Amino acid sequence: MSGRETSPYAAGAEGSRPVHAQPEKGRPPVADCMMTGYGAAEPSLAIAGDGTVFYAPVFTREGNGLIRSRDRGRTWELIIPRFGNVECHSRVQTYLYLDPATDRLFFHSSLLRFMPPRLKRGFNLTWSEDLGDTWHHVKLDIEAFDWLKVYAGPPVSSRTRGYPNVLYMSAPTPISTRCWPVLFPRLQQVWRSLDGGNSWEKAGGISLVPSDHGLPRQEWIIFGSGVVGRDGTIYLGFRRGPRLGLAVSRDEGLTWEVSDVPGSRLLRYFNIIQIGVINGNYVFSEPLALDTEGNLYAIWPDERDLLRLAWSRDGGRTWSQALVVSAPEVKHVRYHAMAVREPGRVAIAYYGSPDGFRYHGYIAESSDVFQKEPVFWSATVNDPSDPLYRYGFNVGYLEMWYGGDLNEIVHVRYDPDGNIWASFCKRMPPLILDRSWKRREHAFSKLQGVIGKMVHP
């Protein structure tokens, strides 16, 4: 694999610093990326047990779907799940999840649409039992329409039907962000399915009202995705005002215990303009990960826009010191994700900038984050002379109102060989600057899907 050799740095309490280190296999890992050629937004990633890789969403003139590679990324094929014979997924609030215990693949999108307007709540959920060859569909008539996440784990007390795991999904209701004076976030509702996604029932929920958490009324609470332990315990990471919160359920989502990750300090929140125009680091998509021994990992951007990581060996009761794990040259992080291959071996991905203007896609890995100052090997997936965001990071909030796409998600995953994959988007320049990206031919998307990869020699 051609690309950029990674460089080592040590994570520390106040920042990271370059170090001299010997790579595990004699040569440093190499990072690179491929441009998918498709329009995209908020990209999620899934890798099956046989190494099949999925990236979603992709936008085409024929419809919206995902791409799949069965040969480790050498070739890709377009898949457009259809339901009702002709309908396909929207471009709004898409998300891809693969249950690693069964390789069942889930892909959903919101019924809400801005252009042309369709103000509906609920989601279309599709899933595949054969790695994308055929699809099932269910319409989720729920009160949510935004930031829905799906995750799965073993049952605690319920008896499942035709599927070994309990499926969970959670979303803010009736909205994720207050639209004063009309709508206010009230509850992070959790649903569960005992039959593999065919039917769903409400479980419990966690309040989104700041005063219920002892916070000022102008603060904001928003959840990321969940992870489920081998004993069925559910963990949800979320912005709990100025701290990273942790919600834990030991009874399949019916009741919840809430606490803060010690040492976490987040950006102060005042209004939605901060998220949409100034800084997107109020939103966490993938803040948690679990390993096979039950160790819990948390990752978040701090108040200085640096990426921090901490871990817990007792289910979130006590935590390690929070370390800065973004690369030394990175001064500003936007969005992030984490994956764990084995206890202590952690991969991270994020958009990072040395100057607050040019943003690149970063991948990094540490073989042992349990050390006092763990060493990470890191590189940009893109050529630094060709940033993914050349003129500042644009979340897309303003453009959303006239049909544009948001970009608030990064995913990172290990494949069976130990290689690391990450999902990004590249902000494409207007036609007057780059005639190769014709927006009409790319479903009028301003973003191109990008897949990053780190390979061990």
Give the helix/strand layout.
Elements: E1 4-5, E2 7-10, E3 17-18, E4 30-39, E5 44-47, E6 53-60, E7 63-69, E8 77-79, E9 82-83, E10 87-88, E11 95-99, E12 104-110, E13 123-128, E14 136-140, E15 149-153, E16 166-173, E17 187-193, E18 201-207, E19 221-228, E20 234-240, E21 243-249, E22 257-260, H1 272-278, E23 288-290, E24 296-301, E25 307-312, E26 323-324, E27 332-342, E28 345-353, E29 360-366, E30 375-380, H2 397-400, E31 411-414, E32 420-427, E33 447-455
Antiparallel strand pairs: 1-4, 2-3, 2-30, 4-33, 5-6, 6-7, 7-8, 9-10, 11-12, 12-13, 13-14, 15-16, 16-17, 17-18, 19-20, 20-21, 21-22, 23-24, 24-25, 25-26, 27-28, 28-29, 29-30, 31-32, 32-33
Strand content: 35-45%
Biggest sheet descriptor: 6 strands, antiparallel
State the CATH topology: Neuraminidase
Strand order in space, largest sheet: 3-2-30-29-28-27
Helix content: under 10%
**Rough outline:** globular
Number of E-state strands: 33
Mean pLDDT: 95
**The first-level CATH class name:** Mainly Beta
| DSSP summary: helix tally | 2
Q: Radius of gyration from the CA trace?
A: 20 Å
| The CATH architecture | 6 Propeller
Q: Report the end-to-end length measured between terminal Cα atoms.
A: 9 Å
Oligomer: single chain
Overall SS class: mainly beta
